[in-house]
Amino acid sequence: MENGVKIYGELALISGSGNPELAREISEALGVPLHKAKITVFANENIFIQLQESVRARDVFIIQPTCSPVNYNIMELLIMIDTVRRASAGRITAVMPFFAYARSDKKDKPRVPITARLMADMVATAGADRFMTVDLHAGQIQGFFSIPGDELSAFPLLSQYFREKQIPDLVVVAADLGFAKKARNFAAELGAPVAFVEKRRDGSCTESLSVIGEVKGKNVLIVDDEVDRGTTMAGAAHKLRQEGVKDVYACFVHATFSDNAAQRLAEAGFKEIVCTNTQPITPEKRLPNMTVIHLGPWLARIIDAVHRGLSVGKTLREYKPSF
Question: In angstroms, what CA-CA distances link 151 with 136, 157, 289?
């Protein structure tokens, strides 16, 4: 203990195969090399992991978003946590920049699971002492975990990016009413008014119905937490153009991009698309008008604060991004 804070051993970083580029960014920003781990997938699809270096008594951060291939990356994370625990690590933090199954956070139909809770339970049961994630789909998911952790938000970085662009006559638009509160906060950061797109969902299909707010003749910035199939974001863009807007920008944290989402965004005619690299974005999904905010240096600063027992909130407030 030091000044009431428990001190763990030396910092150790381990990367899963979910987003090795982001793990390298964190490693380079911290000046701490990634621990070597051999990951083998046998012919029967079983995953086997062996650490090539000791982590005994060390403060281990496992960097593994549970993005596509989702179920493989989940199992790899759980096995990695168990491997590190059995190697006598001092503390284990599961760093999951993208948290899968976050949309399954409540029983909104009869006889359905709450898979987000199951995910939280599995991470704790595997042996993680802490978790770290970025912009959960619903804030209450934090309460599903029985272990302490940090839900971080990349929206201050995204708002800073657009604040520096100084887009005139800007209106921030929530892609749907479920994102209204976060969109309002985002708009406040930019000193811009806010509007909302009302949508109707029928199974996996969405339809933008109406726009709430004054957008005619304005430049608009559509914000959301995640773009999966891209139908909500593209549909909102088309609806806003019918309302007589000028340029349309898109902004979101998680670029899941399933089921031809990149093509839908390309056809929607955005002036610029801004997202982060919580998930890897393959070359075929990178559009010419896409700007990716790299979170490695930001996450590195937070990991360092957690390791040293410093305030994460203070660290976030003091962080100055460079674009």
Answer: 7, 15, 29
